[in-house]
Amino acid sequence: MIGESSVFVGIGQCGGNLGWSIEQKNGLAYYINTAAEDLDCINTDDSNKYHIPGARGTAKNEEIAKDILFQDGVLDSLCNNIHSRYANSKVVTFGFSASGGTGGTMGCYIAENMHDLYPEKIINIVLVLPDKNEDVIMQLNALRCLKHLNELYKNGVVNNIQLLDNNKGDYKTINENFSMTYSRFLEFESYDDNGNFDEEERFDVIMAVGAMAMYEFSSETPFLDGLMNAIEESVYFKTPKLPEVLGLIVSDRVDMNDALESSRQAVGFAKVTHKSKWDEDSNIVISAGVNFEQQFELAESCLKKQASDIENERKKSEQEALEEIKSLQNEVNIELDSNIGRRNNSRPKPSSTQTSTTNSPRNRRRRSSSTNLREKYRNL
């Protein structure tokens, strides 16, 4: 089965959550993190975990993450551990958050090094983009990570890229929706006269170079309506049309010709289509091999806008805080001025016959006391 030839490597907390969702559905998963506490939260065998020695997290800081990763031997050790644990895996899929310190900084470097050490393996990426409310630093981390990933794509390092979008819901729902369809696709084994979506053809889908998105929806609604709604509500970032490869797993209640025509209308006309039916009450459409540079440009623009919006809101909040402080200072100054005025008005004026303060008995005693004190300490 293709599932036995594919391992999901979760990097950082986000990647670990994705990997754990896949492992719970009988998929193979391996976990890498700089924070031992995050790894301890994953209830799997310790042999599936790798804590980078001496690391205690990165606090979403790119420079800290690089300092940890580029220590002598760390990168090679990571990749060699993955290979030794899952030597039979033909496909290695790395999953991580674009905005995090551990995943967002390390993920692409680990994937690149894995490709260099084991060029016979297929390297795929599942990247999670930040939502619009995450901090500016996280938006900027994501921009750097996305650019790095695009370079790996152009250089032929990675094959299949899936962009998940945290704007599409809470992370638990996104993890579950992604892992459910992904796992069902990997484990699919039903064939019939309408098509033969066998293991080699499924490898053809996940090896297609470019962006990929998987849409699952009920067979109770008309196919085109269901697919269009699934695309709109999917956990994926917007994926352009025109895939190289189209995969169809269609309920046996659905006409295959209608499914094919509707899929071409919704996601584009592919060069190659692999299809089959099953006895489930849902349909799965996979659009693979989409030009990733087009999706990259869309995602980059989105992240830049999110970063700009957050920064503008931060500056607006800063200005409001300064204005509030200035207003409070003005109120305090007015209060002080008022009190000083009242005190001055109530103070009695000195008599014209009063003697000079310099000649007052009290001041003469104070000077005498000061003189005596000086003489006292001088004699000590």
From TrEMBL:
Annotated Low complexity bias: 347-361
Domain of life according to the entry: Bacteria
Segments for region (Disordered): 337-380
SUPFAM superfamilies noted in UniProt: Tubulin nucleotide-binding domain-like (SSF52490)
Coiled-coil boundaries: none
GO molecular function, one term: GTP binding
Transmembrane segments: none
Entries under Pfam families matching the protein: Tubulin (PF00091)
Domain Tubulin/FtsZ GTPase, first and last residues per copy: 7-152
Gene3D superfamilies to which the protein is assigned, alphabetical: Tubulin/FtsZ, GTPase domain
InterPro entries: Tubulin/FtsZ_GTPase_sf (IPR036525), Tubulin_FtsZ_GTPase (IPR003008)
Protein name stated in the entry: Tubulin/FtsZ GTPase domain-containing protein
